[in-house]
Amino acid sequence: MKSIYATLLERIERKKPVALATLVGVEGSAPQVLGASALFGPSGLITGTLGGGLLEARAEKESLKALRAKQNRVLDLDLRGSFDSAEGALCGGAVKVLIDAAPAKHRPVFHKMEAALARVQDGVLLTTIKAGRGEGLLLTRRWVLRRDLERETRTKTLAAFRRPIRNSLRRPVSLTSAGGLSLFAEHLEPRPRLIIAGAGHIGQALCPLGSRLGFEVTVVDDRPELASKRRLPDADRIVVGNIGRFLARLPLGRDAYVVIVTRGHKDDAEAARTCLKRPAAYIGMIGSRRKIELMRANFLAKRWASSREFDRLAAPIGLPIRSQTVEEIAVSIAAELVLARRTAPGRSGRKEPWFGP
């Protein structure tokens, strides 16, 4: 699934009207996290979400007004409704939504950002807001690589925002004001990579889920009749070849999540052996508890992995939801991937989750 900014750039290149709405302030409880974004066109929602319901409906309505007026605006919405209110929201908080009615003005910035993310470089998207003439707001956007933050925050414009910009590396920073300017800082990282070793039934069922969850999905299998675009339309990359050799050549850093679901235990073992000594964020393998116990004993006996290294393996794979069908197994794996992505470093999916921005 493409990032919202990739879709935004496509709309800009095709000269299609589009408004970018971003949650830039949250007080109390809200249906989405700070930094959540959605694109709206003349016909309504294009992609993304601000949380649905009243919030998104109001944001859509205001975005259409902003497009017609060609004016940026900030929408303040109170979500502290009551059961007696027909349309009120019951989240218990309040939000600010920034509506950029002319994101095409920032096309070079978005291109620079997408190019950096494609090179696996993270950074911070800085949006400054200043009152303009009439009701409109003047927006300025800047993309700064993480490695350049120290230098960039010494400039006159950003010096007053130095601390919140640094804080944005941990979580998005809500609107912060200084010297007549307001700033929103959002740390953006490359899409996490999901490598599915095996294009059988489970691999095919997991692929679209991984894509919908925001992973860049690669599927590898040595069976061309399975590893095909027809069977894997949601995959970003399909590789036909030996699974073990492919994984051995593939960089597996902290952005990599490996799911091993090959046709048999020998291929599973070869795939696991190539991964366990490398710093992937998550390595999971399908199999019964007996299979995992036997494989562990074999790996330790042959010194293919230490106890600590083998215990990094999430196996049997998936959260325990009593799954039985292929689709249910895929859902349990996808859920564990989400948990692994939202936890502090450690064994994948085995620590308490960290929810929220």
Describe the protein's architecture and organization.
With 357 residues, the chain is α/β, with parallel strands linked by helices. It has helices spanning 4-13, 53-69, 107-118, 149-152, 162-167, 201-212, 243-249, 265-275, 289-301, 307-310, 326-341; strands spanning 19-27, 37-41, 44-48, 73-78, 94-100, 123-131, 137-145, 173-178, 181-188, 193-197, 216-221, 237-240, 256-260, 282-285. It folds into three domains: 13-103, no CATH class; 105-188, no CATH class; 193-341, Rossmann fold. The protein contains eleven helices and 14 strands. Helix 1 (4-13) crosses helix 3 (107-118), helix 6 crosses helix 11 and helix 7 (243-249) packs parallel to helix 8. Helix 6 links the parallel strand 10 (193-197) and strand 11.
List keywords for this structure.
alpha/beta, elongated, Rossmann fold, 357 residues
In N-to-C order, the SSE pattern is HEEEHEEHEEHHEEEHEEHEHEHHH
Classify the secondary structure makeup into a structural class. alpha/beta
Beta content comes to: 15-25%
> Into how many domains do the coordinates divide?
3
Tell me, what is the CATH class of the largest domain? Answer: Alpha Beta
Number of helices: 11
For CATH, the homologous superfamily of the largest domain is named as NAD(P)-binding Rossmann-like Domain
Gyration radius, rounded: 23 Å
Write out the strand line-up for the largest beta sheet, numbering strands in chain order.
3-2-1-5-4
Cα(first) to Cα(last) distance is: 22 Å
How many β-strands, per DSSP? 14
Overall pLDDT level = 88
Helix percentage range: 25-40%
- What are the segments in which pLDDT stays under 50 over at least 5 consecutive residues? 82-86, 346-357
Sheet with most strands:
5 strands, antiparallel
**Dominant shape:** elongated
Instruction: Give the CATH architecture of the largest domain.
Output: 3-Layer(aba) Sandwich
User: The CATH topology of the largest domain is what?
Assistant: Rossmann fold
